[in-house]
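Hi Y.,

Following your request, here is the sequence exactly as I used it, all 223 residues.
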Amino acid sequence: MTETLKWSGGTIPVRRSTRKTVALHVRDGSPELRAPWHLSDTDLKRFLADREDWLNKALHSQAEKQLQKPDFSQQYRCPLMDEQLTLSLQRGTRSQWRREQDRLTLVAPLLDKPHVHHVLADFYKTQAKYYLFKKTRQLVLAEGWENRLTDVCLRRTKTKWGHCTATGRIQYNWLIMLAPERIVDYLVAHETAHLLHPHHGATFWAEVGRLHPGWQADRHWLH
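Below is the corresponding structure, written out as tokens. Let me know if you'd prefer a different format.
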């Protein structure tokens, strides 16, 4: 039988072990207390009361993030720049995706979030590799900066949508493919401008404005 403890938000499960300290964890919107065997319920309630504000904030934050996650229902629509693709799920032995006009079919052994996310990520990475590489090289060739660009690559990062190194290597976060195409074009212009201006000074922003007029609104959207 799972041990639980009452608090103002309801009940919270308690997992006891040989650990020496008590800790409060929140994962996927569910809190859990992890405590040593010897700690009394009174001590746990005191610990929980001291951290109730933090717990409420953590639960609220995760609830907001959960609302932003796709539920992968059969009627869900996946954004791809300015397109909206209708998502269809199928079980199959091999994980793969197929696109037919405005329909995207994801095939996976299990239709749970980890498996579907894996296939969907592969789809977006493939699109990013095509569109971001193409847009970057077209802009570089148009400006005559091909000797400054050494490489274009993809990486999912937590804090950056793009990055341009001092050696001319441009890196994009492939999740940008979920944004409208104008935002994608702004990001490409931003990182490409760094090939000439490796800073965020006035000359850099002037270059971004020349490459992508109206960048201010797009930068605000992206933030």
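The chain has a mean pLDDT of 89.

Thanks again,
Q.
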